[in-house]
Amino acid sequence: MCGISGLACLTTGCRPEDHAHIVSRICDLQHHRGPDDRGGVAIDNVYLGSNRLKILDLSAAGHMPMTHAGWWIVFNGEIYNFKELRGELESHGHTFQTHTDTEIVLHAFQEWGEACIHKFLGMFAFAIFDPKTRTTTLVRDRYGKKPLYYTQRSGHFIFASELQALMQVSSDLRPNQQRLIEWSLYRNVDFGSKDTLVQGLNQLMPGHLLTINGTTVGEQRAYYSPESHVARDQYLEFSGMPERAVVDRFDELIKAGVESRLVSDVPVGTLCSGGIDSSLVTALCTHSLGKSVAAFNVAIQGYHELDENRFAQTVADSLGIQLLTYSLTGADFRRTLTRAMYHSDEPLTHANSIAYLLVCEFARQQGVTVLLSGEAADELFGGYRHRHRRIGHIAKAQRVLKHAPPWLRRAMSLLGYVADGVPLAAFGGYPGLLGHSTSFIDRYARETLRLRCEEAYAFVENETERAILSGMLADVTDFLAPLLSRLDRMSMAASIETRCPFLDHRIVHAAVNLPMKFKLRGNTDKWILKEVARRYVPAEIVDRKKKGFPLPVADYLAPLANRKFFEHGFCTEVLEMQAPGLLHTVDNWRSNVHGFFNLLALEIWGRLFFLNESIDQVNARLESLQTTR
Questions:
Q1: Taking the chain, what is the end-to-end CA distance rounded to the nearest angstrom?
Q2: 3: DSSP letter
Q3: Can you point out the beta strands (E) in 468-579?
Q4: For the segment 113-124, what is each residue's pLDDT rounded down to a tens digit?
Q5: Which residues are 151's β-sheet partners?
Q6: Cis peptide before 347 (omega within 30 of 0)
Q7: Which of 202, 285, 352, 615 has a Cα-to-Cα distance from 72 of 20 to 30 A?
Q8: Which of 493, 484, 262 is CA-nearest to residue 377?
Q9: Per-residue pLDDT for 550 more than 90?
């Protein structure tokens, strides 16, 4: 697990020391991603850099950039089946100098080329240089667990693990207004386009690769998509299997996913919220290891109704393991907000990102370097009950409403605007225009994804089931993206590696072929996951109502709700938002707490990266406003 960086010179007349300076600066900025070792090397027209967080083979042999037969690699992530691949490569005559997965990736690429990617079980972002063809290949994992950004500036192709690092080695930064509008609506710009919130800075999209051949930069190419693994035969096989056999199958898959992610030469723990997903992961870790595993939890101090610590304690007690708890306060939240924003690369989407950062720092202080998380179970197994059932309700309502008179449809639309606080004067009354605009904003990317997912399930006869399964599948690509980004940025800011067993592609490929009866059943969501969990987790945990890691956001934000922070700032001076309307919105923040948090996050992010204020400067400004209210 590391931070990677590098550049390819696309012009002539550059000095190698200039390349080294740029990559060294990125390594400085990504030090938290790999504080254990650092390296850089110039090869041909390429310079590669790495910050290493030692997880496998803690010796100096794991140093990066790593080379073999003139090839070079910088690698971020973990290949959990590297031992099996090592054996396969040895049968082809390969010999190895280390016990790292990095060396396996390099040899695998030499042996099988790009096809090797499909053999990898894990999360990864890497760059490999082939001296024979002078080609640098950049690859990002199937679901985008590990990040990779790039830009072309002044005759150079530059890449890094974090957007903030690229921003700070680039000049003349300008916000991407189109993507900002999309972010304001969807809270996610990790999907649908290579564009980021900054013009000219791009992401390598999940399941994609890109090559630089000498001085020629190719286009991103997809090598994977979840919808391509929906298979009619497997769906029908699950449909005809006895329920217990299906539960047994997923028990084995999930257990294997957890067990593979326990490979490590450093201490491993779990993030255990007390919900079913993380509780199951924690239980299976204990089961697989046959010994205690460190479980970490966040307690919401002073808010018993929101605090899930008691549930996490129930899980720990049932397993006979220790629960290590970080107790979060409003002061902690406000003190950490700006630092979390700096590490997030984008304005925070989720306020609880701050809790993730603090609990990961707490785990690091306890000597743990690897944490397992329950992320992705909701998307795969139907955990967003109201969201998924709403798809079916909407489909039925649309069939009815298309026969309703126009005046009734307009009246219902107006009621929706009123309920959500939308100024009616903002719309000209053109029927259907608002719904059209939501698709127009993201250039129909989500509509295109929806159509691809519906096509994947075209064999499902029931229209409602087909719509819900399509929505769940789309979530794996879209809705999950900012959650994975949150997990990676906040944990790596604390020099912690987080692993997601449910994103094992073997589990994903089985889950997307499950008929809906195994996911949603009556009033029960995640039915099959709960049946598996009953074998390992107390029933009170399995059957309790989902909470979703809520924070008392309004109370935490109250001391920060001051219009002075926005005066002559990023939103008004750079984005040219109209000050009277913006400040009126801030003054009335309690009527839309989440909207205010969006504005606050955007303003802090802009001050850090466009107004070049330091974390300390932004914090000092926020603290001074709290004392002058």
A1: 44
A2: E
A3: 497-499
A4: 999 999 999 999
A5: 158, 201
A6: no
A7: 202
A8: 484
A9: no
